[in-house]
Structures are given as structure tokens and as C-alpha cells.
């Protein structure tokens, strides 16, 4: 029990530091400091190089990445010490370490391949997965899932929220490509590009810029659908429509920041805020999607009856992952 709480705490600290790390990565890019250190993993062949503007941002990003990697290592070691019963948690740790490994290599390639936009976007893609996985683990409820009054509604809403998360993740990738491929100012007017929504004469950067804008608007509509569905399925659903309202507000702030980026020719603060807010929006859909799906990282695979993976003794709380799922499946079959 204590060890699991410790793992959650490490996950939370690591998640927050990783979020700062992603924001710092955006800051490095927005200030044009990406190649301030021409070599990797050292900077001018030194762990602590001579500090000047540009090098400072770049090495801070690297130092923080080192701290995050160590924390993920410590957390995974603690997970493996819990024993083989925590299968999902072990799988989670193996997945996380693998993505971290890929991310470190991509970080190096970002410098060695001179900020190649595909590599920069892949680096953002993996960084986003790491932040989200850590946040999901840190936010998992310690009390075990109760029987849902309406598993069918939960399952429907969970799928909708996963779909929404997919749209937001795609938008993050598109945004990363816009920023790194020089398409940020491809359309200097708003809301359209040279007064047009689409033209066969658009060049590559203009197309990718308009795709990013269009997907942003699609996300705003999809967020409205999520809100309406959550309201319709209340009160059975374990998710509040207020949460969905907050998400819509965040999305409209994000869209405004996007347009501010263009109008103000990519100033540093709105660009970094745009990046960090995108992570929070994704998280705001992923957490309820996972909760409603009934899946848990901490679910013990062989928890004895009446004993939760957190040691609570209520029979309802004693359900492990597969038990909760089979109750839900039986209900669906009987419906
Ligand atoms: C839900 C909506 C949106 C999300 C989740 C989102 C997300 C992102 C992300 C993650 C980036 C990468 C930032 C970086 O790598 O530093 C980005 C870049 C960008 N986005 Fe969005 N975006 C959204 C809507 C919009 C809209 C409507 C516009 C309108 C023009 C816009 C304009 C831009 C621009 C210009 C960049 C490049 C910024 C730079 O060069 O630093 N975004 N977006």
C-alpha cells in the first residue's frame, strides 16, 4: 500500500517535471536555441559548457531530461519490487522505459540531423506519450472502481473520449510539424489563408498550416458533442458535464492562442503556452476515458477476495481488473 502510494507520488513529480521539460523544449525552439549546442550528448564536449544565451536553454533541457530519466528509472525499479502480481503496472513500466529510450535517441537525432521536422515532430510525439502515461498513473484513483450503475453508458462515453483524445494527439503532431517545418507563418492572415479556406495553389507549408487550423475547429465541435453526450447520459455516468465545459473553454483559449501566434508572429510566451495547454487538453480527455473504461494500472492480477490492490477490505472494492470487466460484460450481455 505504502509502496504504491510512493510510486504514484514519484509518477506525479515526474509527470510535472516532464510537462516542464516539454514546455522547455518549446522554449528552446521558440527562441531558436535548438542548435546552440552543436554536439550531443555533451555540449561543446562538456557536461557543463560555457553558459551564454541559447546554450543555457539547450543544456537546461538536457539536464532536466536526465533528471526525468533517473526518476522514471527509480519508479520502474519500485514497480518491479512490488512483485509479479502487478502485471499491468509492470507492462506500463516496460512500455514507459522503451518510449523513454526512443525519446533519448530522438533527442540526439534532433541535434545531429539539424532539426529535421520529422524528427522534431516524432520527439514531440514521444514526449507527449511520456507526459500522458505518467499523468494517467499519477491520477489513478486509489479507491478501487465500484460497480458502475451503467456500464454501457460508461463504455460508450469512454470510446467517445478516446476518439477525442486521438483528435487532440493528431493536432499536437500537426502543430509540431507546423512549428518545425517553417509553416508557422505560411498564412499570415486569419482565419483563412490569403482569404481562402482551400486553394489548389496552396504550397506544402500553407496546406499543413490550414490542416492544423481546420483540425482545431473540428476539435472545438467534437468537444461540444462530448459535452452534450455527457449531459444526456447524466446522472448514471461517472463524469460531470462541468468537466466537459472546462475542456471547451480550454480549447477556445487554445484556438485564440493559435491565432495570436500568427497575428503576433510567434512570440515566445503564447507559443510555449500553446504547447503546454495542448498537453493539458489531451490529459483532460484521456483521464475520464480511461476511468470509464474500467481499466487500472494498479489492479492486482490475483487480488484475494475482499482485498483491493490498495489493501481496502470492502467486497465491492475487492474487485480486480478482470472481475470489474466481467461484471460489466455480464451486464451488457443481459441488457
Ligand atoms: C485544439 C486546438 C489546437 C491544439 C491542440 C494545438 C496544438 C499545437 C501544438 C502542440 C503545437 C506545437 C508547438 C511547438 O512545437 O512548440 C502547435 C503549433 C502551432 N499552432 Fe496550434 N493547436 C491548436 C489550434 C491552433 C489554431 C486554431 C491555430 C491558428 C492559426 C494554431 C496555430 C499554430 C501555430 C502557428 C503553431 C506554430 C507555433 C510555433 O512555430 O511555435 N493552432 N499547435
State the helical fraction.
Answer: 55-70%
**Count of all domains:** 2
Figure out the total of helices.
9
Which radius of gyration do the C-alpha atoms yield? 22 Å
Coarse structural class: mainly alpha
Secondary-structure element pattern, one letter each: HHHHHHHHH
Distinct small molecules: protoporphyrin IX containing FE
- Relative strand content: under 5%
Cα separation of the termini: 37 Å
Which assembly state applies to the chains in this document?
single chain
In total, how many beta strands? 0
Task: Tell me what the structure shows.
The chain has 335 residues and is mainly alpha-helical. It has two domains: 1-139; 145-335. The protein contains nine helices and no strands. The chain binds protoporphyrin IX containing FE (HEM). Residues 26, 29-30, 124, 168, 171-172, 175-176, 178-179, 184, 212-213, 216, 219, 251, 254-255, 258-259, 261-262, 266, 271, 274-275, 278, 281 line the site of protoporphyrin IX containing FE.
Amino acid at each position: 500500500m505504502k509502496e504504491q502510494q510512493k510510486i504514484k507520488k514519484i509518477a506525479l513529480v515526474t509527470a510535472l517535471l516532464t510537462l516542464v521539460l516539454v514546455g522547455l523544449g518549446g522554449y528552446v525552439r521558440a527562441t531558436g536555441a535548438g542548435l546552440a549546442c552543436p554536439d550531443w550528448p555533451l555540449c561543446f564536449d562538456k557536461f557543463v559548457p560555457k553558459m551564454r544565451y541559447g546554450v543555457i536553454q539547450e543544456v537546461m533541457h538536457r539536464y532536466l531530461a536526465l533528471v526525468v530519466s533517473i526518476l522514471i528509472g527509480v519508479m520502474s525499479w519500485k514497480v518491479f519490487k512490488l512483485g509479479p502480481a502487478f502485471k499491468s503496472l509492470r507492462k506500463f513500466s516496460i512500455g514507459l522505459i522503451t518510449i523513454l529510450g526512443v525519446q533519448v535517441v530522438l533527442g540526439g537525432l534532433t541535434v545531429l540531423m539539424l532539426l529535421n521536422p520529422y524528427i522534431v515532430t516524432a520527439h514531440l510525439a514521444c514526449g507527449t506519450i511520456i507526459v500522458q502515461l505518467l499523468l494517467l498513473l499519477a491520477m489513478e484513483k486509489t479507491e478501487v472502481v465500484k460497480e458502475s450503475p451503467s456500464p454501457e453508458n460508461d463504455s460508450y462515453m469512454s470510446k467517445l473520449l478516446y476518439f477525442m483524445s486521438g483528435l487532440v494527439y493528431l493536432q499536437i503532431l500537426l502543430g509540431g510539424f507546423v512549428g518545425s517545418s517553417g509553416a508557422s507563418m505560411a498564412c499570415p492572415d486569419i482565419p483563412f489563408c490569403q482569404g481562402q479556406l482551400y486553394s489548389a495553389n496552396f504550397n506544402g507549408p500553407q496546406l499543413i498550416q490550414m490542416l492544423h487550423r481546420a483540425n482545431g475547429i473540428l476539435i472545438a465541435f467534437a468537444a461540444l458533442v462530448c459535452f452534450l453526450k455527457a449531459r444526456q447520459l447524466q446522472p448514471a455516468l461517472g463524469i460531470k458535464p462541468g468537466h466537459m465545459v472546462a475542456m471547451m473553454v480550454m480549447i477556445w483559449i487554445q484556438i485564440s492562442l493559435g491565432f495570436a501566434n500568427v497575428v503576433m508572429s510567434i512570440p515566445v510566451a503564447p507559443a510555449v503556452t500553446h504547447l503546454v495547454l495542448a498537453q493539458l487538453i489531451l490529459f483532460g480527455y484521456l483521464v475520464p476515458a480511461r476511468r470509464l473504461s474500467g481499466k487500472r494500472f494498479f489492479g492486482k492480477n490475483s487480488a484475494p477476495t475482499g482485498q483491493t490492490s490498495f489493501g481496502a477490505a470492502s467486497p465491492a472494492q475487492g474487485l480486480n481488473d478482470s472481475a470489474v470487466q466481467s461484471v460489466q460484460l455480464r451486464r451488457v450481455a443481459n441488457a
